[in-house]
Amino acid sequence: MIQIHKDTAERWGYTGVGALFRSNKVLLGILGLLGLLVFYGLAVGLHGTFTGYRHVYGVTRQIPWGLLISAYIFCVVTSTGLCLVSSIGHVFGYEPYMPIAKRAVFLSITFMLGGFIIIFFDVENPFRMPIYNAFSPNLTSNMWWMGTLYTLYLIALGIEYFFLLDQNHAWSRIFGLFGVIFGVAAHSNLGAVFGMLHGREFWYGPYMPIYFIVSAMMSGGAAIILFTCISWRIDRHIMSRRMERSIKAVCQLTTMLIAIIMFFTIWKIISGVVAPEKYVAIKAFVLGRYALNFWGAEVLLGMVIPFILLIQSEGRDLRKMFIASSFMMIGIFFMRYDLVLAGQIVPVFHSLGVDEYSSLLEYTPSFHEISVVVAGLSFAGVFYLLGERMLNGHQFQKHEIVPPGAYVCPGCGGIHYKKEGESEEESLKRHHRVRKVDRDD
Amino acid sequence: MKFSKINLDTIKDEGLRSVTGLERRAFLKIGFAVTGVFAGGKLLSLVSNVNEAFASSSDFLEQYPYRPHYSMVIRQGLCIDCEQCVTACKETNDVPDYGYRTRILRKRVTDAIGRQREFIPILCNHCNEAPCTRGCPTKATYKDPTTGIVMMDRKKCIGCKMCILACPYEARYFNEEVHAIDKCNFCWDTRLSKGKKLTACANACPTGTRMFGDVSDPENVIYKMVHQIEKQVWVLRPEAGTKPNVFYMKATRSSPWELRRQAEER
Ligand code: SF4
Ligand code: SF4
C-alpha cells in the first residue's frame, strides 16, 4: 500500500481505505455486487478472446460495429462531456460551475477507463495497437487521430486531476485547458470516423463531429446531475449551498442542450427523408423495427421526459433531477447504439437491387457482448464509489478558486466581495441584510 | 470548385453531348482516365474522349498512376453463376469457409422479357481513392506503389474493423486464422508475384466473364476492352468516389477477341 503523508492526505481529502468500511452496508453491498459484475464480465470477455469473437459476438461482416463500439462511444461521450461542462468553471472561470469540477474530472477519467475496457474486447489485436499506432501512424486516418488524441486527453485529465487534488489551481487550470482541447479534438474526430465515410450515406457529412460535441455536453450535464444526486444520497454533507447553486446551473445548461439535440434530431430526420439511401435507414428507426429504440428510448427517455422533469425541478428538486438524469443516461446509451446501427443496416449494395441485399441487415447483441459492456460500466461504477468514499466526496474544502477580495460565504455558499476595509463578518451581514447578529442576554 | 456548364437545350438527349468538354477534362484530371458516370439515369463512358482531353497519348498514360496498372473487367451477362471463381479463390488463397474475397450476387429482373436473371461478381475494386487505406490507423492496409493493388500487412492489423466499414463494396472480412483482415489482392502473393499472368478467378472463369490485365498497356486486352467508343463501361457505386479499378460492362459473344477466354493454364 502506498503511504500518503498525513498533510498530503489532508490536502487531497484522502481518507484512506478505512473510510470504505465505515460506509453503510447497502453501499458496501452495491460495491461488492459491481465488483463481481466486473469480474464476471471480464471473464466472459476473456472467454470470447480465446474462443474467437467470430463465434461469440453478434457482429458480422456486414455489421462489423455493434454494441461494444456503441458502449465505448457512450463512455467516451460521457467522459468528454464531463470534462467540457466542468471546464466552464474551473478552466474558464465561471464561478457557479466550480464546485463540480473535482468530481467531474474524476468521473471523466473513470468513464474513459470503462470505455477502454470495452474497446479492448472489440479490437481483435489490442496488443498491436500501441505498437503500430506509434510506429506506423497513418495521419489521414480519423481512427488514428481519435486513438492518439484520446490517449493525450487521458494523460491531460490525469495531470489535471492530480493538481486539483493538490490544490494547485494554476496548473490544474492549464492542464484542464489541454484536457478540453484534446477532448474536443478527439471527440470530434470520433464523429469524423463516421462522418468521413463516403460509402455510408447515413453518416457522411460534417453533421457527425458537430453532433458528437454537442451531445457530449448534454451527456456530461446528465452525468454530473446523476452522480451528484447519488453522492448526495451517499453522504448528505456534500450538498453545500454552493453545490446547490452549481447543480442548478448545470441543470439549466442541460435543459438547453436537450433542446438543441432535439432540434438536431428533427433536422436529421427531415433531411434524411429526402435522401434515398438515408431514407431507408431513417424509416427503419422512425416506423420500422427500431421504432421502440428511437421513440421509446431516444426520444422519450433521453429527451422529452428529462426535459420536462428538469424544468419542473427548477434545479432544486433532487429527486426529479435524479430520475431525469438516469432516464437520460439510458436514452443516451440508446442514442449511441442507434447511431452506430443506423449507418450499417442498409447494405452497401442495396441500390444494386440484388436479391442478397434486398432487405435491411439485422444485428442482435450477443451474451458475450452484453457481458463485456456490463464489465466496463460496472468498472466505472466501482471506481466512482471508491472515489466517492476514499476522497471525501470530492469536496473542495477550503481550496475553491476565489477571486481576490472575495470569500466563500459560510452561510449561503456563494462568493461575496468585501468592500474596502470591511471584515468578512461585516460583509456577510451586509450581503444577507443581517442587522443584529449577537444577542446575548 | 468548378461547376459544369450544362447546355440546357441538349440536356434531354442525355448522351455524351450533354457533358461539356470542360467537365470531361475536369473529370479526367481527377487522376484516372476511365470511369463510368451516371448522367441522367444513363450510363456513359468517358473513355472515348481521352484523345480530346489530352494532347498526346503519353500524357494520357500518365493518368494511370501504376505500372502495371492491374484491373479487372467484369462482363456482366456472361456470368452463369457456376462459382468456379469463388472456389478457385478459396483454394488459392486459403480463404476460410466463413469468409470470401469474391462472391456472385444474384439479381432477378421479373419484368424482363426472356432472361430474367443476372449475376454480378464482386470483389475488391482496388480503388484509386481507397477509403479503406485512408481510414486504417496503422497503415496495415495500403496501396502498393507499383501495381496499385490494395494489400495487407497482416502483422500491423489491429483488427479495429474501420476498413470494413469504410469499404463501400464489402470487400473485407476479419480472418481469425491469420489474425488480420483478409481481402482480395489480385492473387499477388499466390500467383502474380510468381510470374502468373492471371488471378485465380479470372483463370478459372469458364465463360470469360472475368478478364484481368494491365489497363495502362495498349496491347493488353483490358486496355482494349475499356477503350472502345461503342461500349459502356461502368463501375459500382460511383457516388462513393473511390475510382475503382474493377470495371463492368455488358457483353455478348460477338467480337472475336471478346470471345477469347483468358486461360493461361488449364
Ligand atoms: S473495394 Fe474496398 S477494400 Fe478494395 S480498395 Fe476499395 S475500399 Fe478498399
Ligand atoms: S482492421 Fe486492420 S486493416 Fe482494417 S483498418 Fe483496422 S488495422 Fe487497418
Characterization of this structure:
With 441 residues, chain A is mainly α. Chain A is built from 16 helices and 2 strands. Chain A has a two-stranded antiparallel ribbon. In chain A, a hairpin with a 6-residue loop joins strand 1 and strand 2. Helix content of chain B is 20%, strand content 19%. With 266 residues, chain B is an alpha+beta fold. The chains are: A mainly alpha (441), B alpha+beta (266). The interface between A and B is large, with 43 and 42 residues. Bound molecules: iron/sulfur cluster (2 copies).
Query: Which chains have the largest interface?
Result: A-B, 43 and 42 residues
User: Helical proportion of chain B?
Assistant: 10-25%
Q: Which residues of chain A sit in consecutive blocks of at least 5 with pLDDT less than 50?
A: none
Q: What assembly state would you assign to the polypeptide chains in this entry?
A: heterodimer
Profile the largest sheet of chain A. Answer: 2 strands, antiparallel
Helix content of chain A: 55-70%
Number of strands of chain B: 12
Structural class of chain B: alpha+beta
From the spread of the alpha carbons, the general shape of chain A counts as globular
Shape of chain B: globular
Given as residue ranges, the uncertain stretches of chain B (5+ residues, pLDDT < 50) are 1-61
Strand order of the largest sheet of chain B: 10-3-12-11
Number of helices of chain A: 16
Spell out the helices and strands of chain B N to C. Answer: HEEHHEHEEHEEHEEHEHEEH
Profile the largest sheet of chain B.
4 strands, mixed
Mean pLDDT of chain B: 78
First-last Cα distance of chain A: 55 Å
- Distance between the terminal alpha carbons of chain B, to the nearest Å? 52 Å
